[in-house]
Design a protein that fits this description.
alpha+beta; Ubiquitin-like (UB roll); 2 domains; three-stranded antiparallel sheet; 16% helix
Amino acid sequence: MATVTINGKDVEIGSNERLNCIQAASKAGVEIPAYCWHPALSVVASCRMCLVEVGDKKPDGTVAMQPKLVPGCQTPVKDGTVIIADSQKVRDARKATLEYLLLNHPLDCPTCDQAGECYLQDYSFNYGRGYSRLNEPKNIKPDKDYIGDQITLFTDRCIMCTRCVRFTREVSGSAELQVVSRGSHEEIDIFPGHPVNNPLAGNVVDLCPVGALCSKDFLYQQRVWWLKSTNSVCQGCSTGCSVTVDQNEDKVYRLKPRVNELAQGHFMVTKVASAGNTPTPKNVSQCPRSAATVTPPPRHGKTSSPQFAARCRRPLRAVRNWPLCCHHG
């Protein structure tokens, strides 16, 4: 078995395991923070939050470290890899990254739905400076409630991790979301005339690490620390997706996907909740087998409409690398 050293601790990984630094560190109980990386999506290494020191252990026992910090999500490990994730150099890089990400971020925590389960809050507390040196006015961008029928985008909260963009291109295959403009003006937006209403659309809300994408039916309904979570199985279709039911005072407010590689994987199928006091298992969707009515935008996505419809009609377990089910907000 291969041996990887993380903060001075040796960890064995399987000879057939293909892990990056973040995954290897988690085996040792070490957290390497990241925003843009997700195990079910492609690697872009754009947030720079997971920068670590990496080196190789030579046969004579000496260690040759790389001169610069490297993104942990993009760096594979092998036998003899040495990872340092707690040095002063790494801590300073995390502080600088967080300060940059928070420059134009609004102080929305008292009203934001993500408060209490927000990566920005957690990482700022664990790795941030605790203060800002910005003296100029923040760059305020307008919200976009036209992103989807059940999705709204608080643009000024977005940290441009592009998880949502990659999801619509790589998982749903519909490619409605994109990055527009450049530099400090870049934003997430939809392809003109094609809102995010595909059967998997609600997953972008769960993927968003900072509360920029929110579900309209859950917006301002509950604070997450009031919710009580219970593992369950969705009854919306025969797939039997693993979900987490969040309720308070015997009222179900949302369902969230629960990772189960033997069932639907990381994601769920989504649908608009019914207009009543109790959400339809939030939000139980049309089964992927019957989603032939979904038409992705006629653009740069790799999947054409007939291909996407045929893909949706196939049994879930036959769709390799396309984990699904029914969802929240």
